[in-house]
Amino acid sequence: MIVAFSVTPLGVGEDVGEYVADAVRVVRESGLPNRTDAMFTSIEGEWDEVMDVVKRAVAAVEARAPRVSLVLKADIRPGVSDGLTSKVETVERHLARDDG
């Protein structure tokens, strides 16, 4: 499964990058395939391991913020691995065909 999620601390002002970095650090230290962009962090693995990482990422932000918002989207597709890479490669292949 792939989970895309965003953890936002509330009540800490507008500059939240330091708090978000705490969450991303947890994800990166998990060893699971992951990517972070301007809006979400995506992580790939089995249900229990992915949800454990999300829970720990939220806890890392919650430890320093009075309130936390979590947005989560999951692609649950048994038997698929390396989806973080293969989904993007498929789109890029179609775009390259359009350019040629």
UniProtKB/TrEMBL annotation:
Q: Which InterPro entries match?
A: MTH1187/YkoF-like (IPR029756), Thiamine_BP (IPR002767), UPF0045_domain (IPR051614)
Tree of life domain: Bacteria
Which residue ranges does the record assign to the Thiamine-binding protein domain? 3-92
Similarity comment: family membership: Belongs to the UPF0045 family.
Q: What is this protein called?
A: MTH1187 family thiamine-binding protein
What organism is this sequence from? Streptomyces edwardsiae
